[in-house]
Every structure is written in C-alpha cells, then in structure tokens.
Amino acid sequence: MKKLLxxxxxxxxxxxxxxxxxxxxxxxxxxxxxxxxxxIKTLFNSVLKxxxxxxxxxxxxxxxxxxxxxxxxxxxxxxxxxxxxNEVGLDSVWLQPVMVPHWVRGEKEIATYTTNGIQKNVPICxxxxxxxxxxxxxxxxxxxxxxxxxxxxxxxxxxxKIVFFNRPxxxxxINTFSAYxxxxxxxxxxxxxxxxxxxxxxxxxxxxxxxxDFPHTGTMTYNDLPKEQHIPAAAISSxxxxxxxxxxxxxxxxxxxxxxxCKTLPDAASxxxxxxxxxxxxxxxxxVVGGHLDSWDLGEGAHDDGTGIVQSLEVAYLFKKNNIKPxxxxxxxxxxxxxxxxxxxxxxxxxxxxxxxxxxxGLESDAGGxxxxxxxxxxxxxxxxxxxxxxxxxxPYGLHNLDKGGSGADISxxxxxxxxxxxxxxxxxxxxxxxxxxxxTFDKVNKRELELGSASMASIVYLMDKYLYKNTLIxx
Length: 476
What we know:
elongated, Aminopeptidase, 23% strand, Glucose Oxidase, domain 1, eight-stranded mixed beta sheet, 476 residues, 2 domains, alpha/beta
C-alpha cells in the first residue's frame, strides 16, 4: 500500500512539474503564439498516437526495396507513391513525366589482393556511372593518395596503376555532413583526374565516419574526358581501406585485383509523384514539401530517402487529420533521380517556371530519420529572422537549430529572393553508418524518431504557411 501511495505521489509531482513547465513557457507567449503552441502540440500528439509514416516506410522498403532510377523497383515506387497519396485524401494527385539516367550494377563485384602469401577478400562496390572492368578484371600495383591534388601531382606515375584515394572523414567535426563534404570530392572526381593520366582504375575509401566492412556506393563523373580515358571506379569499405593502407606500407608493390560489370543504359521514362492540398485563401502560392523517391540499389533506401518521403506525406496527413486548412497550397512531391542526376528536381522547377507557378517556400527531408534537431534556412535576411523567431515555439520539441544553410538538392532549383527554402535537420551522428550501403534497411529506423520528424516538419510548415502568407499579403 505504501509503495502504491509513493508511486501515486511521484506521478502527481511529475504531472504538476510538467504543467508548471508548460505554464512557464506559455507566459512568454503572445496570444497568437499560444494558439500556435496549441496547434504544434496537437500535431505532435497526433503523430505519436496515430502516425502512419512507419508502416508506410515498412511497405516501401520491404515490398519494393532499393529504387535506383530507371529500375523496375523505381517504377513500382511511383505506382506506390500515387496510390498512397490518394489514400491520404489529397485534393489532387498526378504524375510528372521525367527522363532519368539508367545505370545498372550487374553482377556482384569482386576484389582481392595477396600479401605475405595470404589472399585477402575486399568488400567493394562499383560507383554509380562507372564503367565496367574488362571481363577478366583489373590487376595492378596500387598508389595511395589522400587528395585530388596529391593524385594530380603524381601525373604520369599513375599510368597503368590503380589509384587508391584514402582520405577519411574528419571526425572532429560534430556535423557529419560537414565531414562528408570535406572528402566526397575524391569519390566524385577521382576517376576523372586519374583517367587523363593513364591510370588503370580507381578505388576510394567509403564515405563514412564508421570503420566497418560495408562499402558505400555513390555517384561519380568523368566530366568531359573522352571515352577512351574512362576508367573503372569503385569504393572499398573503411575497414578494408585501413588494412590495405597498412599492407601497402609493408609491401608497396602489392597488386590489387577487382572486377565489376556495371554499365549505363539509355535514359528511361519515369515520374515525379505530386499531390497537394489546395490553399483556402491564396491557392496560387505554393509550398513544396518533399524528399526523393529513388535510392541506391544496395539496400532498401530506408534512411536515404524513404524516411524523407513518408515524413513529407505525413505532413499532409497531419494537416488533414487535424482539419488544418492551409492558406497557401501545400504540395507534396516525391522527386525522382536525386541520387544520380537530380533530373526530377530540374524537371519540377522547369515546369513550375513554364506554368508560371508562384512558389513561396519549400521544405526537404533528405538527411535520415533520426532524432529531430532543427532546420537549415535558405532565405532572404527578413524571412530568415522570421523563422528564427519561432525557436521558442519549436525548442520544447528539441528543435534548437534554426541556422542559415542549404535546404536540399531537390528544392534548391526553386530558390529566389522571395522564396524561403528549409532543410529538415535530424541528428547526423549515425546517418553515414548507413548512407548508400546494403545496411540502409527498415530495421535501422526508429519509429518514434521518424514520427517526431514528421511532426517537426508539419509544425514548421504550419508556421510558414501562416506567417509567410501574411508577409506575402503585405507585399501585395
């Protein structure tokens, strides 16, 4: 009995503390902000009790899987996207045709080398848009470099060799996207640099702050090199990169072998999937909310970018469920081909311009489905300050970061002086464990974190629709 009384007392104390905290926060709010705070709380309550995004993601990843542009899986994802938008009850849903690149991986890649009489198998995967090796593969000595400049300095010394780019993430950077940006050039440009000097092939350390045995794919380019100078390019796992580097110190003449059978096919027909809730007062003003429907082929495309897709749709679901009628048109877009071409984004922006649509804002989710941290803002100074003024409304939900920065690859073609673009920014620490790998699967996504992200996005869309709408009216 005493234990029951104690538990009851503790529970009442907790409830009292929570109520006092809410009252304390509300004291600093204007009457309008109290209304906003109530709406935001309702959005979070709704998603945590009756969210749909997690089951949508399960369906997308488990029943369709990886969705590389031009693939049968990408085509299935388009049908899935149209169906699920209609189920949510958007006012209109349509498909926007776009031609996309069609690169295929082919047979599973192989890589080995022998040192001190021991053959070592290397986890490897071809980079997107790479050519294949000859049918018999490539065998050559290895030159290790840490940067594109170091590779350029080798010049003709790389002729007939495999160049190994081994610059790791800077793990002192808290934002892992900054670390990614600091070394991804070797993946993208490595083959273009080395091909012109007669290198036989390129292998690149995977883009991750983890040390593991998962190779990370990603796009690369040959720039304007003539075809005869194109060379095969592949990524090896970070753990294999460390081991290979150590073995090269002991045996600089060791020979590395790899084989891959990828190729680029003619462009394929595909679609962006688009749906919208029409605005009640200025429907000609459009806010885009979206992510990319395509993914790499190695995993299930869960964090990249299945989470962004389902969160974007859940914004519309939460508006509909809570009878929030936007002043402006809220348009949900599942963009096709972000991973290796951004053709969907370019087509969307092209058609928006052709149709003389007035886009006043956009929100993109393409940074994984982990714990919400905030948003990055790409806007003029007055609208940036406006969004930053909402910190006291958003910070109770862990959304402390409202900083100037990029928005996202798919909505950035819409940028302009009067357009406010926002990138959803969850915690970044685990994202590059899974990015572009076979481990980017449904089981790596936490249901609660995913749903908190949906509510976070819905909250800022609610605020943008309400207050940027007012700004637009004033300007008019």
